[in-house]
Write a structure and sequence with these properties.
The chain is an alpha+beta fold. It starts with a helix and ends in an 11-residue tail after the last strand. Strand 7 and strand 8 form a beta hairpin. It has a single domain, classed as 4-Layer Sandwich (Deoxyribonuclease I, Chain A), CATH 3.60.10. Pfam families: Exo_endo_phos_3.
Length: 318
């Protein structure tokens, strides 16, 4: 009798669970990944061959090669990016990754309202993840870029993943002067995530991006208070962005399925750094440095899969 019960329990577990899938999720603010062409209606003249940055084909190809090197070495299943000008730029990065190591990435980059024409984007491994609905830009008050929302399936486990790729308003006019825009982004994001969490079946949430605030500042405090089910994974280093002698932890990954203790790790390969140990930037003001980015990439290793909760609620519109 005992053996029969154990066998029945084993079959139940087998039928009601799904295989776990390891995932490497990463984010990288790539610092002005512009092409060399003037875009009508966008303030991108400085990133042209005749512009202030003298952004010619040679510099563009160096930038693409640098970003592809990071993507190839990092080898993330999902790589979210900030400051990508267009789907064509994203495709150039993906093509260069393929040339380097044969990995096949597909990309999503949608036009946002950013006046300079730079947007959040996503590269994903086609054998790991597949979008199940059209991606969209979620509008955010006082933030032209909005939030890139991608819904898709993790192919091995069957889980639905909801990705929110953020690049909140920078501090270009000062931290206090721009704080309200970042708080508005936190509230908008919490509204959408809460809707999904209440209505979707076993939602798996990933919130990531350059939020331009530290964990103790109002926008991040507000976000974590509104979404207590999300885990802000602790950064393994001092920061992702170096400004005026200080490391700032501006880049984040939150999830509701990876254990909270899982560290958000910095990708600090020597080629990304100056001799002083700070990010090797593409530009310092108008001066061309020829580096990778003013931010360091971050990544999170975790698992997805297992028991799935069911609900009869209807998904609300975003």
């Amino acid at each position: 009798m005992t053996n029969r019960l154990l066998y029945t329990l084993f079959l139940f577990i087998l039928m009601t669970s799904c295989p776990a899938q390891s995932l490497r999720i990463a984010f990288y603010n790539v610092e002005n990944a512009f092409d060399t062409l003037r875009s009508p209606g966008k303030d991108d003249a400085e990133f042209t061959p005749q512009g202030e940055k003298r952004w010619d084909t040679r510099r563009y190809r160096t930038k693409i090669d640098h970003l592809a090197q990071v993507a190839a070495d990092l080898s993330a299943d999902l790589l979210a990016l900030a400051e990508v000008e267009s789907p064509e730029v994203l495709a150039d990065i993906a093509q260069r990754v393929r040339e380097k190591n044969g990995e096949g990435y597909l990309g999503i980059c949608l036009e946002s309202g950013d006046r300079r024409g730079i947007h959040p984007a996503l590269l994903y491994r086609r054998e790991v993840f597949s979008p199940t609905a059209p991606a969209k830009i979620l509008p955010v008050p006082h933030n032209e870029r909005g939030i890139l929302y991608v819904k898709g399936a993790v192919l091995a486990s069957g889980d639905t993943l909801h990705l929110f790729i953020n690049h909140w308003t920078s501090r270009y006019m000062g931290q206090k002067a721009t704080e309200g825009a970042r708080i508005a982004a936190a509230q908008r994001l919490a509204q959408v995530v809460d809707s999904i969490s209440r209505c979707a079946e076993s939602p798996r949430i990933v919130l990531l991006g350059d939020l331009n605030d530290t964990p103790d500042e109002k926008s991040i405090v507000r976000l974590t208070a509104l979404l207590p089910e999300l885990r802000m994974h602790p950064l393994s280093g001092p920061g992702t962005y170096y400004y005026r002698g200080e490391w700032l932890p501006f880049d984040y990954i939150f999830t509701n399925f990876v254990p909270k203790a899982a560290l958000l790790r910095l990708w600090t390969k020597p080629y990304l750094l100056t001799p002083e140990g700070t990010p090797w930037r593409t530009f310092s003001g108008p001066i061309y440095r020829g580096g990778y980015s003013d931010h360091l990439p971050v990544y999170l290793d975790g698992w997805i899969g297992g028991f799935r909760r069911k609900t009869n609620k209807t998904h609300q519109s975003l």
